[in-house]
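Researcher: Here's a chain I'd like modeled. Treat it as a single chain, no partners, no ligands.
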Amino acid sequence: MKRRTLLLSIITLLLLSPSVWAAGDDSTSHIRSYDSGSLIQSDGSLWLWGYNQSVPTRIEGKPNVVKTFSNIINEGDLVFTLQDHSAWYVPRNNISESVKFVPLEGLQNLATVSSLSDHMLALSNEGNVFSADQLGDKNIFSRFQPLSGIDEVAHIDSYYEERPDNEERWIFLRKDGSVWKNTKALQSFEPISSLKDITAIAKNIALKKDGTVWTWPKEFDKNVAPSETLSVSQIHALSGIKTIKANRYSNLAIDQQGRLWFWGATVTGALDNTTYHNDNTPVLLTEVKDVKDAFFVERSILALTTAGNVYVASLDGEKLTSNASFTLLAKNIQSIKAGPRHIIMQKTNGDLWGWGVNKHAQLGIGDYEFLYSTPVPVQKPILVRLNGTPVPLSNGVITRNGQAFIPLRSVFDKLGAEVTYDYNSKIAKMNQSKAGDHPVSLEINFKTSQTKVNSKSVELTNPPFMVNGIGYLPLRLISETLGAKVDWIQKEDTIVITTK
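Model: Modeled as a single isolated chain. Structure tokens:
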């Protein structure tokens, strides 16, 4: 009887109470670290968003997460490590699948990972390199095996050499400042001559300790078989450089004065009519100054300044001129993590904001709008506890207009109710009819917002909604006198449901 009374009380108060629980805007951030599609809370819990999870959602069963590595094979893919030094892979490119974890056997003390095509390389803190191949199209990797012939590695990068078969090229920066490449698949390695005292690599460019930048070809005449000996040359226009960045087509450099340089390709057209206009002469971009970090995202350059401002410039056009326009995008930003088509920014108060393509919920805002051209706040990671125990949510809590909404199924499943959903009629039904209890029923039409409790219509002040097939109800204050109480613990970003 107690469970049935509690269930009916929760339903009634969720739907009828005029006093609405609202999430505070001044809660302190508990984010220890974050990436372009994940975050780690100070308690070591991992939260993911993207694909099936439209907002940050706590992942059960993997406590004490130490570090994450994003965009491994596909956008959204993730590798993370635990306190026991084990490594796990999370494939995220299939929207029909829920979150799953694949143990990366053979890996310990992971420092970084790099991927190209169907191969993944992993680097340990000790400088050893391990390799694994993808098995079929299931995003599952074979056991990692150590690579012989290369050790004492500080960083790994990769790119395609544009030959008749687009050969994969792996580049290794060793701790002694030398740069090595694979010469035959991943079976043998040799140093790239003339590259010494290197401190950073990015695709086919390298930064020397003295601030000079060096490069080697990645495009070859298809009618001529290139020599395995790469011809290295200095980019003389660049000096005093402290940071280099590169994607498949373009390059960026930041010098000691905080100036930003660009060379490579700009873009016109789209889809099959896309054209890349290449210019390998570095251009000093004069309209942005005091640059701290820079990124390529989609067809844009983003620059983060030492003052915490983020500026964006377009790569659309046949040429990028020195006075290319940069538009202010955000203020009070302390760091940025970039995916191929979006960014996640952390403000000085700890809050996360997103910008860019959101086709697969990359921005964690709670919807699947294709693009956001202005920054939007990532939903806060909010924990729900029922009698002290965290409730596993299929999708995280969503706040809209200062009010919290919870996934219907997750909480009511915990209370022993049966929840069904008809995809054709868009009607969700919840029933509790255990022996000895009076039946409790809830019916919600997500097309019309019509709601019934025990077959009686109820008018909702704040209608429920659906996101990617997940039904959400507004969370209301639950009267302690009716058998349960709901508290918002703002300092912990936690909703606490307590029953008697």
